[in-house]
Amino acid sequence: MRLWKLSYTSIAVAAHDVALQQAHEICARSGERNARIDVSSVLTVHRGRFAQVLEGPEEAVRAVLRRIMGDARHHSVTVIADGPIVARRYGSWAMAYRDPKTYLAEQIDDILQQTADVVRAMKATWH
Ligand SMILES: Cc1cc2nc3c(=O)[nH]c(=O)nc-3n(C[C@H](O)[C@H](O)[C@H](O)COP(=O)(O)O)c2cc1C
Question: What is the helix, strand, coil percentage profile of the chain, to 5?
Answer without folding.
Answer: 45, 30, 20
